[in-house]
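in:
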């Protein structure tokens, strides 16, 4: 697959992506307390955008500290965005939106879509959990499913956004496990699926190899299993 995007999986649900013009995007930057993130990647200082799927600690992670340090733009659902402002993210750097909404930047856009999960932040209501569809201009579409179980709208998202690469939670317990995740791949019909949200904590026991086996059985989507910290696009 030809792309000018660079992408690294940082463990759990966290990604670093560099757009074709070099904009640095972090998704769900749970880094400093993330046992699977390599040490040298726990405290980045070159961030332009942070995009969040929902308010749970293993997704918001270091957002407030990183936003203060780098001055990056923080994109989140409306309720979560307002809670982050109360915690010290400035209004100027915050962009709130909601499901179905798209925000456009220089060379990419982000659409918030549904996920079937819950959301809270610091014990407060943080809206609903979502997924993020990131479309790069003249390049690929990357769909991060967030935390979710299988649900019927995934089929529509597959048809509507035609994502090339999807990030799919497989860990079980707090999200779906490998077999259900493989059925999601069948519904979305992307070229490549990357398993996420497994192995970070003992209860997240879903295995990426099992996910790969099920996916190969159900559909043509190729499963790539990067190591935490590994660059898997644009090498
Ligand atoms: Zn989670």
């Amino acid at each position: 697959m030809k792309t000018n995007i660079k992408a690294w999986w940082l463990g759990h649900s966290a990604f670093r992506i560099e757009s074709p013009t070099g904009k640095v995007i972090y998704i769900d930057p749970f880094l400093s307390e993330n046992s699977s993130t390599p040490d040298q990647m726990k405290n980045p200082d070159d961030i332009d955008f942070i995009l969040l799927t929902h308010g749970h600690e293993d997704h918001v992670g270091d957002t407030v500290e990183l936003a203060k340090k780098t001055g990056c733009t923080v994109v989140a659902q409306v309720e979560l965005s307002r809670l982050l402002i109360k915690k010290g993210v400035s209004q100027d750097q915050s962009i709130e939106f909601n499901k179905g909404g798209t925000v456009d930047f220089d060379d990419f856009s982000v659409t918030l879509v549904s996920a079937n999960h819950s959301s809270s932040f610091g014990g407060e209501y943080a809206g609903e959990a979502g997924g993020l569809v990131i479309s790069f201009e003249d390049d690929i579409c990357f769909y991060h499913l967030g935390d979710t179980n299988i649900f019927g709208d995934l089929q529509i998202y597959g048809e509507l956004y035609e994502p090339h690469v999807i990030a799919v939670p497989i860990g079980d317990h707090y999200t779906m496990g490998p077999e259900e995740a493989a059925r999601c791949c069948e519904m979305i019909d992307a070229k490549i699926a990357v398993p996420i949200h497994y192995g970070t904590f003992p209860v997240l026991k879903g295995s990426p190899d099992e996910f790969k086996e099920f996916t190969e059985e159900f559909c043509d989507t190729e499963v790539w299993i990067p190591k935490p910290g590994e660059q898997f696009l644009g090498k």
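note: The pocket of zinc ion is lined by residues 56, 58-59, 147, 174, 197 (CB under 6 Å).
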